[in-house]
């Protein structure tokens, strides 16, 4: 199959065109030398031809002309045939045409040896000027937005309310692709150029701040974790094909006793939230007991077969976390290496989304478990690019039993109603 010829010309192509025109070459000859079609060369010349108007009068009747003061200036002593302005006022003006130009196949003066002292209008092709015009047109054609006023209004009406709910541009595009007339990148450019009723600072994570440094003295003594270290975890999953659930605690203000216990299902990117009244190991064990009692022994064991957590003092009671309320072992608990939060990076990264709903410095004391379930439902209904336009609930509901979601009060939120802002929990607490 013959390769299609490119219709765009380079700067070198234009220099060759100018050189061949000076040699008097025909359009077809030039096209053959550049391996282009004749119509491409013809359009290039017609678009970028430069017309040079002579400073003298180029009237056909100028040899016999004896007129003065055609322009109305009585003080001028020049004959009108020597003035280039006279043609604007003289009713007898007839433009003189160059016979050589009219007879030239390209209708250009590039190959004419008389062009330096010619008094006729000149038509020239200049490679440098043509390439400059081409580059300017190429840039200007890509500026702005090819949208009507109605399109702008439609995009504004769809995007602005959803961004104010805390939704990302990616989430909005993926869940409204049937009604949005533009792509994700175009919407970001519209926001960046202030074409919509929002600005960049309204987008999630548009402004990042350095996390506050804080140190806390462990309130409980450290315990031996022999057999529960990260190297033991790696050896365990090598011989046991079971999913991992990452566990962590999210703290509020320094004065708070309440914290949020989080469980991140790595396979589904799903995170569950539970409020703890105290930041202690006893509160963690008590919450695991409540979850096991709600799900039942078999369902809990199938959904939480292995838990990976950090070395926080609240996870010191290993036996309590692993021991079932029905007797025997309910799960296996392992710990990351000290100062290696990257070993459960998925959970840590998902906390960034949680912080959109409960920003740092927010007190957790007013929150109830109903608030945590609501936040988890919105968090897990949020569309992710890493999931190829799907949300964590889409994956989890296809793999986990339906009873798991029913017993824990979990449900998928419609895409247009997902809210990733603190106002979500303020609505659920009208007293605030």
Describe this structure in words.
With 432 residues, the protein is α/β, with parallel strands linked by helices. It is 38% helix and 9% strand. It has helices spanning 11-22, 27-34, 38-48, 99-103, 127-140, 149-164, 169-175, 184-192, 230-239, 281-295, 297-303, 318-322, 345-357, 369-380, 392-399, 402-408, 423-428, and strands spanning 49-52, 122-125, 245-251, 259-265, 270-276, 306-309, 332-335. The strands form two sheets. It has a five-stranded mixed β-sheet, sandwiched between helices. Strands 1-2 form a two-stranded antiparallel ribbon. Helix 1 (11-22) runs antiparallel to helix 5 and helix 2 packs across helix 3. The chain is elongated and about 120 Å long. The model has no long low-confidence stretch (mean pLDDT 84).
Please tag this protein with its features.
single chain; 432 residues; alpha/beta; 7 strands; 9% strand
What is the strand and helix layout of this fold?
Blueprint: H1 11-22, H2 27-34, H3 38-48, E1 49-52, H4 99-103, E2 122-125, H5 127-140, H6 149-164, H7 169-175, H8 184-192, H9 230-239, E3 245-251, E4 259-265, E5 270-276, H10 281-295, H11 297-303, E6 306-309, H12 318-322, E7 332-335, H13 345-357, H14 369-380, H15 392-399, H16 402-408, H17 423-428
Helix pairs in contact: 1-5, 2-3, 10-11
């Amino acid at each position: 199959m013959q390769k299609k010829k490119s219709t765009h010309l380079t700067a070198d192509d234009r220099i060759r065109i100018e050189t061949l025109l000076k040699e008097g070459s025909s359009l077809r000859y030039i096209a053959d030398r550049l391996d282009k079609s004749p119509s491409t060369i013809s359009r290039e010349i017609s678009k970028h031809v430069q017309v040079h108007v002579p400073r003298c009068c180029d009237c056909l009747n100028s040899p016999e002309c004896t007129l003065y003061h055609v322009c109305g200036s009585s003080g001028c002593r020049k004959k009108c045939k020597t003035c280039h302005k006279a043609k604007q006022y003289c009713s007898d003006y007839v433009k003189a045409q160059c016979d050589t130009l009219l007879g030239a196949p390209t209708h250009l003066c590039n190959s004419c040896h008389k062009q330096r002292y010619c008094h006729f209008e000149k038509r020239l092709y200049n490679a440098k000027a043509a390439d400059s015009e081409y580059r300017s047109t190429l840039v200007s054609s890509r500026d702005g937005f090819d949208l009507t006023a109605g399109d702008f209004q439609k995009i504004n009406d769809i995007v602005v309310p959803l961004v104010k709910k805390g939704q990302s541009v990616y989430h909005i595009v993926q869940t409204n692709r049937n009604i949005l007339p533009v792509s994700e990148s175009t919407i970001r450019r519209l926001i960046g150029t202030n074409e919509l009723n929002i600005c960049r600072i309204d987008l999630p994570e548009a402004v990042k701040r350095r996390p506050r440094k804080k140190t806390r003295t462990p309130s409980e003594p450290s315990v031996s974790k022999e057999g529960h270290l990260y190297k033991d975890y790696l050896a365990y999953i090598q011989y046991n094909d079971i999913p991992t659930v990452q566990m962590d605690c999210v703290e509020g203000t320094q004065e708070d006793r309440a914290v949020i216990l989080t469980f991140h299902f790595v396979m589904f990117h799903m995170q569950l939230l539970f409020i703890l009244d105290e930041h202690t190991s006893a509160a963690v064990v008590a919450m695991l007991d409540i979850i096991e009692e709600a799900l039942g022994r078999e369902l809990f064991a199938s959904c939480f077969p292995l838990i990976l957590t950090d070395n926080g003092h609240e996870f010191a009671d290993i036996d309590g976390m692993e021991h079932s309320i029905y007797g025997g072992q309910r799960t296996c608990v392992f710990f990351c290496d000290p100062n290696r939060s990257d070993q459960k990076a998925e959970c840590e990264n998902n906390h960034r989304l949680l912080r959109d709903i409960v920003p740092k410095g927010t007190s957790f004391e007013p929150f109830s478990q109903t608030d945590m379930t609501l936040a988890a439902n919105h968090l897990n209904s949020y569309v992710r690019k890493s999931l190829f336009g799907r949300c964590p609930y889409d994956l989890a509901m296809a793999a986990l039993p339906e009873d798991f979601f029913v017993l824990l009060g979990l449900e998928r939120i419609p895409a247009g109603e997902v809210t990733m802002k603190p106002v979500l929990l303020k609505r659920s607490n009208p007293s605030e």
